[in-house]
Structures are given as C-alpha cells and as structure tokens.
Amino acid sequence: MERYSRILNKTAREIVLLKGRPCAWGKCTFCDYIEDNSRDKEEMISLNREVLSKVTGEFGVLEVINSGSCFELPKETLAYIKEIIIDKKIKKLFLESHWMYRSKVKEMRDYIGIPIVFKIGVESFDKKFREEFLKKNGDFDSYKEVLEYFDSPCLLVGIKGQSKEIIDKDIQLLTEHFSHGTINVFTNNSTSIKRDEKLVEWFVEKYEDLWNDPKVDVLYEKTDFGVGD
Ligand code: SF4
User: What is the average pLDDT value for the chain, to the nearest integer?
Assistant: First the structure.
C-alpha cells in the first residue's frame, strides 16, 4: 500500500494516505474502504507518524486523506500534522470530511491555523441518486448548503444506474460554484455497484477539457494520486 506521493500537475502538492478509525457512517453502497481502517490507536499513531515524516514541504501544500473523514484520525495524528505544517512551512492543507461532521469543520479550520481546502464526498448533487442509490447519508438539498461548510466537492461518475443528465448537472454545479473539485471515475471494487463502461467513454469524450482544468482533479483510476492500491 503506497501511502506517500507527490501530485505534480494542477495544484502541485504532497499527499499522504493515513489510517483512521472506521467511517462512522460506513453504509455507502459503492464503498469498501473499511479494509484500510483500524481500531488499534497505537498502530494508527505510529503508522501515521512514519508516513507524515516523509513530507518535505517542497510545494508548501499538503493533502491528508484517510479512508473516511479527517475527524476519524487520532487526535495525536492531528497534532503531528500541525507540527509538520510548522516544521515544513506548509501554507495550504487539503482535508476531507463527510457531511455528518459539517458542524466541526470550522473548529478544524481554527485548530489547523492555515488555509484548508475542505473536500467532501458529495458523489452527486442529485439527492435521489445520492441518497436512495448510493446511500451517502448527505441530506442536503442544494449545493448552496455544501458551500456553507466545504470548498471542494468530490463527484463519482460512471456507475450503472447513473444518467448522463445527472453527470452534466453535477459537473455544471461543481465548475460554476466551487473553487476546486475532484471527479472520481468509478472503478469496480468488492461492492455490487458496477462501472458503466459506455457511460465512462461518453464522459471522457464529452469532458476531455476537464483534464486541463486547473481547478478540477480527475481521477481515472483511484490510484491516480499515487496513493492506495
Ligand atoms: S462516507 Fe466515505 S468512507 Fe464512509 S462509507 Fe461512505 S464512501 Fe465509505
């Protein structure tokens, strides 16, 4: 499992994949992240310290991800992230959280003390698709509610059962209203949700310009950031 990498295009940054507690929701139909969670606090703290010690600060920008929300990282790991930010002169941090922790986002911004690009796994702004099909547990009605807390939505595209209209609308909302976003092209995993190859082909052709859009990261493979397996 690769846990440290450098993203060289668009917003150049170092990225670390840390280990946290199991996602407090854990019921999204497309997700099998649970395999990278732990309940062993000491193991998490020590692994995360080892991974974070690789950060050099060369870009002044760091992204921290875990298979869940940043609020599921041990508090000792969060304290070490703060130390690294100071030692390595990091000026901007990317973090990610689920909608259920939205009331704690401001607290985290204050705690970290440098600008944070807060990502959220929206998957889709279409509430019916997001809640009934993906079971995301993000009960917002409008992108405006997301904008109150978060900076950067992550969308999922290329799933059997998803329509082109849903994808068009999602991309329009992301590019028109947010300063940053991520589009994950779905790859098959151990869940029963399946990739729709024809839909992926359509998306890649229609939205090829997104690959050059500096504010949108497009992950064609889930390992495109260089971490994970
Ligand atoms: S919120 Fe994220 S980690 Fe939790 S089940 Fe859903 S996709 Fe997986």
Answer: 96
DSSP 178-212: -S-EEEEEP---SSS--B-HHHHHHHHHHTGGGGG
Q: Which CATH number fits domain 4-219: 3.90.1640.10, 1.10.10.60, 3.20.20.70, 3.30.450.40?
A: 3.20.20.70
Ligand 1, residues at Cβ distance < 6 Å: 23, 25-28, 31, 33, 67-68, 98, 121
Q: Mean pLDDT over residues 2-30, rounded?
A: 96
Q: Which of 17, 18, 19, 23 to mutate to test the pocket of ligand 1 (most atoms within 8 A of CB)?
A: 23
Query: Residue 153, by phi and psi: left (phi above 0), alpha (psi -120 to 50) or beta?
Result: beta
The 8-class DSSP code of residue 27 comes to -
pTM (predicted TM-score): 0.96
